[in-house]
Design goal:
With 283 residues, the protein is of the alpha/beta class. The protein has twelve helices and nine strands. The chain has two domains: 7-221, 2-enoyl-CoA Hydratase, Chain A, domain 1 (Alpha-Beta Complex), CATH 3.90.226.10; 225-272.
Length: 283
C-alpha cells in the first residue's frame, strides 16, 4: 500500500477502504498535496476489485473545512511549488492560469469520487465547508455526527455559490428550494436540519459516527459485488436520464448482465434454504 502524507488509507480484509483526510491542525482543509494524493488514490480505486465499499472521514474535530486559503496565498507555498517539479504548474504568476489549475484540480476530486465504482459513505463530524461540503454531497450516503455543520461557503468569499458540483447534486438531494437557500446564502446547516431536509441519512452521537458508517458499509458488503457496482453506475447515469423509457432500458441491460452471473443462483438457493445468501467476497 502506497503511503500518503495528507490522507490515511486503511484497506480492510473485508473489502472496505477507510479514507481519512489527515490535516487535523488545519481542520483537514484542502491543499495541493492533499488534492494530488486524494486523486492518486481515487485512480487506484477505479480498477480495484478487492475494495467494494469506501468510507470517507476526517481526522480530528472536522470533516473538511474547505480550501486552505492561508496556504494558497502564502509566499512559502509559491516557493514550494517552484522547487517541486510535481507542483510547478501552480507556481505561475499569472492569476488566471493559477486559478484555472486550482479550480480544475479541486473539482476533479468530486468527479473522481462520484465515478469510482464503489459506493462511498461520508462519515461527517464537525465542519463540512466549501470543498468539504462538496465532498460530502458527492458521496453516495452521508452519516452525520451531532456536531456536523454543512456549509456551501463559496458565496461568503466573494465568488459564485455554484462550485464543485454543488448546483448539480444539491437540488437532486434536497429539492430546488432548499438547495437554492443554502447555495445563495451560504447558511450553516446543522445535523438536525440536515436530517430534516434529507441531506443526511441519519444523525448519531459523534463517537458513534465511524461505527455507524462501518455498520452501513458491512451491510453493503453482504450484497453482490457486481450488482452493487452496476447499481451505482445506473444511478449515476439515470439521474440525468432523458426519459423513463431510457432509464428502464439501462436497468434492463444491467439486470440481464447480473442475472447471468453466479450470484442469483446463490440467492435462489439461499431463499429455498431459508437463509441469507453468501455471495463471494472476491471478484
Amino acid at each position: 500500500m502506497k503511503e500518503y502524507k495528507t490522507i490515511n488509507i486503511e484497506e480492510r480484509q473485508d473489502g472496505i477502504s477507510i479514507i481519512t483526510l489527515n490535516r487535523p491542525n488545519r481542520l483537514n482543509a484542502l491543499n495541493l498535496e492533499l488534492m494530488e494524493e486524494f486523486l492518486d488514490y481515487m485512480n487506484n480505486l477505479d480498477n480495484n476489485f478487492d475494495i467494494h465499499v469506501v468510507i470517507l472521514q476526517g481526522e480530528g474535530r472536522a470533516f473538511c473545512a474547505g480550501l486552505d486559503l492561508i496556504e494558497w496565498n502564502s509566499e512559502e507555498s509559491m516557493k514550494k511549488y517552484k522547487q517541486d517539479k510535481k507542483y510547478r504548474y501552480m507556481a505561475t504568476k499569472d492569476p488566471i492560469k493559477r486559478s484555472f489549475m486550482l479550480q480544475r484540480k479541486v473539482s476533479q476530486m468530486m468527479i473522481k469520487l462520484r465515478r469510482i465504482p464503489q459506493p462511498v459513505i461520508a462519515a461527517v463530524k464537525g465542519s463540512a465547508y466549501g470543498g468539504g461540503f462538496a465532498l460530502s454531497i458527492a458521496s453516495d450516503i452521508r452519516v452525520a455526527g451531532e456536531s456536523a455543520v454543512f456549509c456551501n461557503a463559496f458565496i461568503k468569499i466573494g465568488v459564485s455559490g455554484a462550485d464543485c458540483g454543488s448546483t448539480y447534486w444539491l437540488p437532486r438531494l434536497i429539492g430546488f428550494s432548499n438547495a437554492a437557500e443554502i447555495i445563495y446564502t451560504g447558511k450553516e446547516v446543522d445535523a438536525k436540519e440536515a436530517a430534516r431536509i434529507g441531506l443526511v441519512s441519519r444523525v448519531v452521537p459523534d463517537d458513534k459516527v465511524g461505527e455507524e458508517a462501518l455498520k452501513l458499509a458491512k451491510n453493503l458488503l453482504s450484497k453482490s459485488i457486481l450488482g452493487l457496482r452496476l447499481t451505482k453506475e445506473a444511478l449515476n447515469i439515470n439521474i440525468d436520464a432523458a426519459s423513463l423509457e431510457s432509464a428502464i432500458e439501462l436497468e434492463n441491460r444491467t439486470q440481464n448482465l447480473c442475472s447471468q452471473s453466479l450470484d442469483p443462483q446463490e440467492a435462489l438457493k439461499a431463499f429455498f434454504e431459508k437463509r441469507e445468501p453468501k455471495f463471494p467476497d472476491k471478484w
